[in-house]
Amino acid sequence: MSKKSRRQPAHKASEVLEGELLLKDQSGAPMVFTFGDPDPVLDGRGVLDYLECWANGRWYEPPVSLSGLAKAQTASVYLQSGLTFKRNALSRTFIPHRLLSRQAFEQVVMDWGWSGNLYLEKQDNMLRQAMGLKPCLAKYMRRGVELDTYYQVMGWKDEYQFRPGSVCHLREADISQEIYGLPEWLPALQSALLNESATLFRRKYYQNGSHAGFILYMTDAVQDETFVKDLREAMKNSKGPGNFRNLFMYAPGGKKEGIQLIPISEVAAKDDFGAIKNISRDDQLAMLRIPPQLMGIVPQNAGGFGSIRDAAEVWAVNELEPVQARLAQINEWLGEEVVRWKPYALPSSAAN
Hints:
Number of helices: 8
Number of strands: 13
Structural class: alpha+beta
Radius of gyration: 30 Å
CATH class of the domain at 55-73 and 98-183: Alpha Beta
Low-confidence stretches: 2-6, 44-51
CATH topology of the domain at 55-73 and 98-183: Cytidine Deaminase, domain 2
Shape: elongated
Order of helices and strands: EEEHHEHEEEEEEHEHEHHHE
């Protein structure tokens, strides 16, 4: 007995693929309308595909793409605003030192917020006495295989090796590796990208001429097929710039229901834009642990968010002071108190 072929039958030329609608006009010519393939809502998951710090023989690569993180932290209004808020609160309570200026401090604090890493280079004089602390951009810093050695890698064949022991590195703790830190907002990355995707979708929705999204349903007999083709072409040209146009159709003897205009842009294309924005915003605020009233968010309920003064005081105790304590590790590394703080005090009620 001959074995039966297990090959699947080839697709016929007239077979409609998934996501397509096959129609025929009066002349019998097929017309295929493509609705598009399914696209992932989140397109930034590749930044989390790294599983460990890979060593290239000289330094360790970060566990996540720092370039991807740098772009992602500007993807959402709330994420960028929250990181800036923390930077401003720390800068407000920081007391400048002759070795660490306020400008340098703000730079390293911003790096600490978006990347979970902070780098300061100690610059010495001829007597090996500290002359100043210079911030090193976390995006380009790499930790060497010898852990007290650091490199600044700007690109291919564009690297600089720091003197061993001259770089202070503070990192957020990570459960998977002890080489680099990871930002605390990393679990909210998908929410930030979803927030951005919703905004971009709605922006393209309006640019594309959302009002022109409809189905023109015709049941009246049309004697001239050329008229149907001209009408179809006019509908296609109603999208894009200059799309506020009128369409005219003359159908003598037509019935009342012979031509129906069924809008789909206002019905089927709704994506719960407001709900997506609000839910993704709440995720980011929960990860940043910042009360919404401190972020300038307008409450949707009549009761509001409560006292902004109480929220600021609780946030300072639970969030600001622990970060200040971690940044004070710079003093332990240098052997001199260069990071000092003044109390986080709010203006009195009488002054308001």
